Amino acid sequence: MTAQRQERNSGRVTKRHRLRPVAIALWAGLGGVAVAAQGCLAVASQAATTERVVVNRYTGLAIDGFDPVAYFVDGRPVIGQEDFEASEAGAVWRFHNEGNRASFVAHPEVYAPMFGGYDPTGVARSVTLAGNPRFWLIVGQRLYLFDRAETRDAFAADAPRLLREAVARWPELKQDLAE
């Protein structure tokens, strides 16, 4: 991450832009099948902003530069633009437009991927596998990233159990990541 980017994203807004309303999609398509587990676990909806976040070590970008808000608004992964960046949880996040950036800055706990972008099926097994932004689901109004399509499908088939196990194991894994 460059010093220029760090300075630009130090939490202050340098350009004035109009805010656009953002609709939050509650459902995500998976091969034509809607997947949702409303209220799987109350704990699963805790803020992701205090969690260790998967960051590309060369670019400093979270979720490989994909816009986390786009999953909710557009229902698909959308690559973010360098002109629309924000710093949160020790990472640089990119967005497709200013409206998405403003929504994330106002509510990172809603839009950041759960478990910091680590695959929840791995977390459930006490393994930290970085999620791939191309393999994702929104479950219980939270974004989850998976390392491959097979783990996404396994998670979709048994989300309540896997979430329960992942939530139980995440604090210890997160502590190990911080060390």
Can you characterise this structure?
The protein is α+β, with helices and mostly antiparallel strands and 179 residues long. It has one domain. The chain contains seven helices and six strands, in the order H-E-E-H-E-E-H-H-H-E-E-H-H. It has helices spanning 3-8, 70-73, 98-106, 108-111, 120-124, 149-157, 159-178, and strands at 28-30, 33-35, 81-88, 91-95, 132-139, 142-146. Strands 1-2 form a two-stranded antiparallel ribbon. A hairpin with a 2-residue loop joins strand 1 (28-30) and strand 2. The relative contact order is 0.18.
Please specify the SSE layout and strand pairing:
Elements: H1 3-8, E1 28-30, E2 33-35, H2 70-73, E3 81-88, E4 91-95, H3 98-106, H4 108-111, H5 120-124, E5 132-139, E6 142-146, H6 149-157, H7 159-178
Antiparallel strand pairs: 1-2, 3-4, 5-6
Concise overview:
It contains seven helices and six strands; from the N terminus they run H-E-E-H-E-E-H-H-H-E-E-H-H. By secondary structure, it is of the alpha+beta class.
Domain module tally: 1
Order of helices and strands: HEEHEEHHHEEHH
Q: For the residues shown, what is the average pLDDT?
A: 78
Strand order of the largest sheet: 1-2
Strand content: 15-25%
Into which percent range does the helicity of residues fall? 25-40%
Total helical segments: 7
Defining traits:
single chain, 179 residues, alpha+beta, two-stranded antiparallel ribbon, 7 helices, 18% strand, globular, disordered N terminus
